[in-house]
Amino acid sequence: MPFTHQPTMVCGLDIIPNKNTINNTNNTSNKFIQGFTASFNQTFSRYISLCEDIDSREKIKLKNCMIEALTNFSLINKIFPKHVILMLEGGQSYSKVKKLTENIVKQIKESFEELKLEFIIKITIIMINKKNNLRIFSHESTDYNNPIPGMLI
Fold it and tell me: N or C: which end of the chain has fewer CB within 10 A?
């Protein structure tokens, strides 16, 4: 399995509207829930999950989640991870993704500093974009059709 040659923590972050806080003017939520999960074993099959209330998608609270995840990882493995991989949905404009990424990296580094880590932990951020406009057609003579089931691309 990739990344298992060194201690690695795989994290996931997702943000959803909080349906329990409804704005009286238009029946929409103006609060969000941040879900965070982090693995702490070599096969990435054991993990912790944490939730935080946040005011907007841009104001994530990652620092405390990372501190708890890193502490948990070190208690179980007797070592801090050498590599942290964070996956999150990035379905936003480039300027928002850039700002969000800078905020994420800042908070992760702050968590490293608060734990007084004296070595460099590699950070990989994977932005997942669910909005896909790709359409694939097969071309047969003069006709275009959907690809047949099982077609490799």
Answer: C
Q: What is the 3-state secondary structure (H, E, C) of 36-102?
A: EEEECCCCCCCEEEEEEEECCCCCCCCHHHHHHHHHHHHHHHCCCCCEEEEEEECCCCHHHHHHHHH
Question: What is the domain extent for residue 101?
Answer: 8-145
Q: pTM of the entire structure?
A: 0.76
* CB atoms closer than 10 angstroms to residue 39: 20
For residue 52, tell me if it sits in a domain. Answer: yes
Q: What percent of the chain has pLDDT over 70?
A: 86
Phi, psi of 3 (to 5 degrees): 75, 0
Question: How many domains does the chain fold into?
Answer: 1
Q: What is the CATH number of the domain that holds 116?
A: 3.30.420.10
**69-88 per-position pLDDT tens digit:** 999 999 999 999 999 999 98
